[in-house]
Amino acid sequence: MQVEHNPLRSALKACKRHFWAVAVFSGLINILYLAPSIFMLQVYDRVVPTRGVPTLLVLSLILAVSLIVFALLDMVRIRLLMRASIRLEKMAAGNILHRIVGAGGASPAQRAQAMRDFDTLRGTLTGPAIIAIFDAPWAPIYILISWLLHPLIGMLALFSSILLIALAVASDWSIKKSVADVSARTSYAYRSQDYSIQASEVARALGMRDAVVTRHLAERADLARRQGEIAGTSGSFLAATKFLRLFLQSMALGLGAYLAIQQEISAGAIFAASLILGRALQPVEQILNAMKNVMSAQNAYKSLDRFCRLPDVTAVRTSLPSPEGRIEVSGVTVRVPGSDRVLLDNLTFTVEPGEIVALVGPSGAGKSTLLRTLAGAIVPDEGEVRVDGARLTDWNPDELGRHVGYMPQTPTLFPASVHANISRFRAMTEGAGEDMDREVIEAATLAGAHDVILRFEHGYETQLTVREGGGLSSGQRQLVALARALFGSPTIFFLDEPNAHLDISGESRLMATLQSLKQRGATVIVSTHRTGLLQAVDKVMLLRDGAIQIYDDRAKVIRPAAPAVEAGKEQGQLNKDQSRNDDESRTQGATS
């Protein structure tokens, strides 16, 4: 049985030596915390009664050296935690990002939240909360020292610690669910705002700006109210903790004075008892003060740990030969996530190498879902897809991706140069050069995008923006996306409505492109609503309600040899479906 690699746990395990070192330094630091108390004890018990100035100078020198060592150890402790944070970043961030980009079983919300959770967890390693956690185990030592001064002082220290710990537990219990709820609502609010920014042009054009802003303000007001409730609750506990710590510390001073009057302890022990008790209670107060951060880190760890249990997309797979292009689909069923509604219903078919297959059918028939499943963007709920006899899960995704040209229905371009988009950012891993420039231009020329790109302000170096479309028109965006699909001379193509925004000239150029791909033996599966593109294909597949109605040679489907009644019915329905020129449903992942 293969054990799933959890990058988060592996990275935290690798940071153990840092945490052990921090624990050791924390111990030394807490021992040195006793230096001021011991100094005060010696001053009142030795220096004042004997008026020994030389003794006072020696004690002052010892205190100064102790505090300097204390400061150096504290600085080293902070640096160790910073190194642990950096190590966590180096070991886990890359794998988590790979999962965000490539994990098929993760929802968009999980992907959007994963890196935020990781940053929250990593930031906690260098915050005050982690310091308080490492100091907390030393509280019993201070209680024991208080007990050595006098049993009554020790009992007071023990009672004070138990009381403050109870307050900390009550604070955690009272706001735990609220913090988790606010965290989820905050994440949703940010995603909603990001989407509104992308769709701002639509909102302005349709007069929706005020309504959209009002909606976001209502979300923010609800968040502010909930955060205020959490702050009020945790603030009350924190105020109570500060009061009790100061009060009990003063009571320790009073108890010490009483015991000194009874001649059971020395005068110096009065102040030492108060300082030691204050130090014993300080970590509890620090944890309460950072309770929100601690709980956020706890929730972030749980959420990120669940995310990291998804299949590891970076797992090493055996390198397979370059595919010839044979695609076998067996019993593939895809459902709407979290629902029983079927998008693809038990599809089984085969595409031979070098064939061009057209997917046709009404909107919502499943064409885009099928192409996304074939490309590996969607993991089917049942069945499997094989390329050259190997399941998609057997292929190294990046190696197979080099031989695949995928163009989604809504071309997604990245905020980078046109050149970088077409070259699939290959320069980041292989370095730029003349050979890559030549491949980019060849792909753009084959797609009919070269002349269009040259008319851009900076040609191939034109920087695309983050906003929808990257600053290009729909037709320009589609040409660049087609050039990206053609880059590297793939042997398999999945093209979703590649002619949706092309004019007559562009569609003629696309027909020539398909003919060129056929001549070099590429396998192409293309969805379309336009009948003109069918002249360039070998087979036609008619989908309706996620099921295959017809899958046969183009000549038999477009022009049946026999005018049978049933065939005529299918042909009439096909022509009707092909005449519809509306786009496929754009709710990817929920509808096709």
Give a brief rundown of this model.
The protein is 61% helix and 10% strand. With 592 residues, the protein is α/β, with parallel strands linked by helices. The protein has a six-stranded mixed β-sheet, sandwiched between helices. It has a four-stranded antiparallel β-sheet with strand order 2-1-4-5, with helices on one face.
Description of the molecule:
- The longest helix is centred in the middle third of the chain and has 53 residues, at 209-261.
- Helix 6 packs across helix 11 (267-289) and helix 7 (139-149) packs antiparallel against helix 11.
- The strands form 2 sheets. The protein has a 6-stranded mixed sheet, sandwiched between helices.
- It is elongated and about 115 Å long.
- Helices cover 61% and strands 10% of the residues.
- The two termini are 35 Å apart.
- By secondary structure, it is of the alpha/beta class.
- The model is unreliable at 561-592 (pLDDT under 50).
- The chain has helices at residues 7-14, 16-32, 35-50, 53-102, 108-124, 128-135, 139-149, 151-198, 200-205, 209-261, 267-289, 291-307, 367-374, 397-401, 418-422, 427-430, 434-447, 450-454, 474-486, 504-519, 554-558, 565-579; strands spanning 327-335, 342-351, 356-360, 382-387, 390-391, 404-407, 492-496, 523-527, 539-544, 547-553.
Topology, element by element:
Blueprint: H1 7-14, H2 16-32, H3 35-50, H4 53-102, H5 108-124, H6 128-135, H7 139-149, H8 151-198, H9 200-205, H10 209-261, H11 267-289, H12 291-307, E1 327-335, E2 342-351, E3 356-360, H13 367-374, E4 382-387, E5 390-391, H14 397-401, E6 404-407, H15 418-422, H16 427-430, H17 434-447, H18 450-454, H19 474-486, E7 492-496, H20 504-519, E8 523-527, E9 539-544, E10 547-553, H21 554-558, H22 565-579
Parallel strand pairs: 3-8, 3-9, 6-7, 7-8
Antiparallel strand pairs: 1-2, 1-4, 4-5, 9-10
Helix pairs in contact: 1-4, 2-4, 3-4, 3-11, 4-5, 5-12, 6-11, 7-8, 7-11, 8-10, 8-11, 8-12, 10-11, 17-19
